């Protein structure tokens, strides 16, 4: 329960955090008889954070994508805030999430490949620019196999 709460605190807004009561209900629903007081729960949180030396954040591809999308340059239809590019990018991220072949890949590279695939799909004349390479630290040669896999999977899904 404590691990779920700590995890949620890193990725959710405060108003979306599960309460201790709702976590306990969920545990009871799956047959766990454990019940903690609020004080015990907070002590366990502190214990976990100290154990991991407060290093509990592992950036995912979606974390990198948010940054990459905010900095991506290109034609007006590809500027920050363009929901079409963001939706397309997220679709390619979901493809990577479902494919076990992406497991050994770095999250930053998956995010770069998804952005490139989205820009290709949207018809960008230059889907991977020198600026994007500098921003992401990923060359086209480096992400090309991932981009191809994402595009192939997308095409198969559309058939």
Explained architecture:
With 159 residues, the chain is mostly helical. It is 64% helix and 0% strand. The model has no long low-confidence stretch (mean pLDDT 86).
What letter string, H or E per element, gives the SSE order?
HHHHHHHH
Structural classification: mainly alpha
Radius of gyration: 20 Å
Main beta-sheet annotation = none
Q: Helical content, roughly?
A: 55-70%
Shape: elongated
Amount of beta strand: under 5%
End-to-end span in angstroms? 42 Å
Secondary-structure blueprint:
Elements: H1 2-11, H2 20-29, H3 38-51, H4 61-71, H5 83-98, H6 107-121, H7 130-136, H8 140-158
Helix pairs in contact: 1-3, 4-5, 4-6, 5-6, 5-8, 6-8
Could you name the key traits of this structure?
single chain; mainly alpha; 8 helices; 0% strand
Briefly characterize the structure.
Helix content is 64%, strand content 0%. It is mostly helical and 159 residues long.
